Amino acid sequence: MSEQDISVFDALQIAKDAELKSAAFYADAITKTTNPWGRNLFQLLTEFENHHYQKLSALEDSLREKGAFIRYEGKKVTVSAPSAGLDTREENPKSVLAILNMALEIEVDAKKRYITLAHQTADPDGKAMFETLAEEESKHWTLLNNVFWSVNNQGLWSLPK
Fold it and tell me: Which of 13, 66, 105, 112 has its CA 20 to 30 A from that of 2?
């Protein structure tokens, strides 16, 4: 293994560890959120971070076994606004805002990590995979930022119309 291979595997391990920590953070957020829509949002993000972990693991396996990057098609973030009649008030906005603020930081860090990996990767499939992962983390950030604004300014879990 060359020095570059070691750095790629080290970078993948760091990214995988971060995805696991993110998934655990969102799973914990579910238990600290009373609003059903908020819990659903954190469940979706938990599943998304686990999906990223699985894809990074598959990439690592492929690099070790074949020396090749894998193609990653991405996964769409689908969150619908709370349905009519659903109580979207947040009983403990300060606590939720702290969770959302930390989540925003997590997503920024993840995006930066994947952008760096994309710049360091010459392989087209590898570069595309890391760019797609960065885009997905950016979409998570935008979603969380919109929810943060709503909880902060209206005391409601909602998305812009």
Answer: 112
Tokens (6 digits) for 88: 């979207």
Encode pLDDT of 95-137 as tens digits. Answer: 999 999 999 999 999 999 999 999 988 899 999 999 999 999 9
Structure tokens, 16: 């995988």
Cα distance between residue 24 and residue 4, in whole Å:
30
Query: In Å, what is the CA distance from 128 to each residue of 95, 117, 121?
Result: 37, 10, 9
62-82 burial code (b ≥16 CB/10 A, e <16): ebeeeeebbebeeeeeebeeb
The single-letter code of the amino acid at 24 is A
pLDDT tens digit sequence for 66-99: 999 999 988 888 888 777 777 788 888 899 999 9
Question: Topology of domain 3-67+95-154, per CATH?
Answer: Ferritin (1.20.1260)
